[in-house]
Write a structure and sequence with these properties.
The protein has 655 residues and is an alpha+beta fold. It has a 5-stranded mixed β-sheet with strand order 2-1-5-13-14, with helices on one face. The chain has a 5-stranded antiparallel β-sheet with strand order 7-6-18-17-16, with helices on both faces. Strand 16 (544-549) and strand 17 (555-561) form a beta hairpin.
């Protein structure tokens, strides 16, 4: 009989234990989310100096921190207030559970928590927040299973990264950065206590909502540490008296929305989890220059509106449709320093730097004249600034005529290439292209890497193709870098959470010689000093550049460069309606260009200010009386006095 009783007792013990073991192992699948912990992490985007531009995340803003980088004092503060027996129990605290059961049974409902840190982690990650005995039972079983699979250190690491701490902050590192703008290692005891006191009621105790309540909760944490003997009286008194400064920052901290949109567009295919993968993206942007670019664009727009108001021409269309774009880069590396896609992202996220296609107008002329220089002409070569009539067949086969004009309807006869470009003479440019041969000009442009959207007729000379400011900035790197065509780049490097580095290299190829490009730079300096671009002149630094104004003043451009920085500015109406006739590229865009460079010199006073003159460029006197001289090279030789005669003004040429 005694034997049977022992067997029965054994069965009664083994069955519940076996059933409990069975339940634990059936929860293997559910607990894998914590065992193989892969939380959604925030991607951080930085400028070239390591300054944060923005955080990218989907539903949870979280920075990850490994256990080794969590300060011991922070761990002590958490254990003091939440689970002093953490390193001694196996996921649950039996004594605390018994006390809680007695209170729950007495109350007739689940009232007392008694949760260990492991249980809190399970509850917040794997279970709902409903207060039922069945959920509590699962919580206990899951916690035991987690403790079997993970070390105490791994559990703490997951807890510190998973826990919600109010204000949209998930994880202790995120909250430290958000509330205090500090890394974990720089937190004071009071700040640590404020953070570990939040999980109980993160929104209620949030320091940005209820600062005094948060301090009171933190002081209870510190008092508990004193009670446990983990700090001394002096430390306690100092910590309880501290009142840390708390910041109420936005979660995204997005200080460059146009930049971030472009980063997302460029990296989206390679990193589809860009918003949750926890990457660090290092861009080429200089946020100080980005801010200068925004201010310059805003000031330029304000000036345009002010002039319209003073003239009595300000209307609703101009107020709502006038916009602009600015891109600045290092022409030698292609690294984009500033990219302002519009004057107000909140009103229009459309990035006019990368997405808007517009006619560059006369801002394209330097490329036409560069072909002429490379074909043997020089800045002193003469071209006819005279009226011509061109005939061509229309779409219906009917013969039509084209009679291009100069901007001011004046004609100078024979002018030098230098003067023709300095004063942006349309007729001289068209006549030069016609005399050189259209095919030869197109061939030269293709050598420079300009191959897209080229019109198949003489309107090419007036810049009638469609380009974005980014496109034009790329083309102008040939001038600004001494003959190298450089692809603009925005992203330098992406670092994965595992530390893998993906670097982005730029593409640059030499398409011209420094000597030939210097001739063009010398002409474009004249554009700024005495031509159509005087509004872009900046005291104390040499600027070379070209204005561009399209038909009916629909577009206003200034594309220019200093010895080390290139910048393109555009203004126009988003609906393609004309601006006022007085708003030319020189006046509208040139002023904003100047504002930007003036700010740049204040930010970086050691910026290179004078262009280098390469060997192989020589001067020859062109006027003994005025001591005037001109620059020449072995390709663009000095004229021999046999310049051609001016063509007759009534000559009919096929367009």
């Amino acid at each position: 009989m005694k034997k049977y009783l022992l067997v029965l007792a054994g069965i009664m013990i083994l069955v519940p234990v076996g059933f409990l073991g069975y339940l634990i192992y059936t929860f293997e699948y559910e607990t894998q989310r914590l065992i193989n912990y892969q939380p959604r992490l925030t991607t951080e985007v930085y400028d070239r100096h390591g300054n944060k531009i923005a955080n990218l995340f989907s539903d949870q803003h979280r920075y990850y921190v490994s256990y080794e980088n969590i300060p011991p004092r922070l761990i002590e503060a958490l254990l003091a207030i939440e689970d002093t027996m953490f390193f001694e129990h196996y996921g649950v605290n039996p004594d605390a559970i018994m006390r809680a059961i007695i209170k729950d049974v007495t109350a007739g409902k689940l009232k007392e928590g008694a949760s260990t840190i492991t249980q809190q982690l399970v509850k917040n990650t794997l279970l709902t927040r409903e207060k039922k005995f069945s959920r509590k039972f699962k919580e206990v079983l899951y916690s035991i299973r987690i403790e079997q699979q993970l070390t105490k250190e791994q559990i703490l690491e997951r807890y510190f990264n998973e826990i919600y701490l109010g204000h949209g902050y998930y994880g202790i590192k995120t909250a430290a950065d958000g509330y205090f703008r500090k890394p974990l290692k720089e937190l004071t005891l009071k700040e640590s206590a404020m953070l570990v006191g939040l999980p109980k009621a993160p929104n209620f105790y949030s320091p940005t909502r209820n600062y005094e309540l948060c301090l009171g909760r933190a002081n209870r944490v510190i008092a508990r540490m004193l009670e446990l003997g983990w700090i001394d009286q002096a430390t306690y008194e100092k910590a309880t008296q501290e009142r840390p400064k708390v910041y109420n920052d936005t979660l995204s901290k997005n200080s460059g929305p146009y930049i971030i949109d472009e980063v997302m567009r460029q990296l989206g295919d390679a990193f589809p989890d860009i918003r949750s993968g926890g990457y660090k993206v290092y861009t080429t942007i200089d946020m100080r220059l980005q801010e200068a670019g925004y201010k310059a664009l805003q000031s330029g727009r304000d000036e345009i509106l002010k002039r319209a108001q003073e003239a009595g021409d300000l209307d609703e269309n101009m107020q709502t449709q006038l916009n602009g774009a600015l891109i600045s880069l290092d022409p030698y590396t292609g690294e984009i320093l500033a990219m302002v896609g519009g004057y107000d992202y909140s009103l229009s996220p459309f990035n006019r730097v990368t997405q808007a296609k517009r006619q560059p107008g006369s801002a394209f002329k330097p490329f036409i004249y560069q072909v002429a220089l490379d074909s043997g002409m020089s800045p002193a070569s003469l071209v006819p600034d005279i009226a011509r009539t061109y005939t061509y067949a229309g779409a219906d086969g009917e013969e039509k005529t084209w009679q291009p004009k100069n901007y001011k309807n004046e004609y100078k006869g024979m002018v030098t290439i230098r003067d023709a470009l300095t004063h942006s003479r349309n007729l001289a440019t068209i006549n030069m292209v016609s005399d050189m041969g259209f095919g030869k000009v197109v061939e030269g442009l293709r050598r420079y890497g300009i191959t897209e959207n080229l019109p198949p007729d003489l309107s090419l000379a007036l810049g009638t193709m469609m380009v974005s400011p980014l496109d034009l900035a790329k083309y102008y790197t040939m001038f600004a870098s001494g003959g190298g065509l450089t692809n603009p780049i925005l992203v330098r490097e992406v670092v994965t959470p595992s530390g893998e580095r993906v670097r982005y290299e730029n593409k640059r190829r030499q398409v011209n010689t420094p000597q030939q490009i210097y001739l063009m730079t010398s002409i474009l300096k004249d554009v700024v000093n005495r031509g159509t671009g005087t509004f872009a002149r900046v005291p104390g630094i040499e600027i070379a550049g070209k204005t561009g104004t399209t038909n009916k003043n629909v577009d206003a451009w200034f594309a220019g460069y200093s010895p080390s920085v290139e910048t393109v500015v555009w203004f126009g109406h988003d609906n393609n309606t004309p601006m006022r006739r007085s708003e030319t590229g020189g006046r509208a865009a040139g002023q904003a260009f100047r504002y930007f460079y003036e700010d740049m010199l204040r930010i970086y006073p050691n910026t290179k200010r004078y262009f280098d003159r390469p060997a192989g460029v020589y001067d020859i006197s062109t006027d003994a009386e005025s001591n005037a001289s001109e620059a020449f090279t072995d390709t663009s030789k000095a004229p021999d006095g046999t310049e051609g005669a001016t063509p007759a003004t009534n000559e009919q040429l096929v367009f």
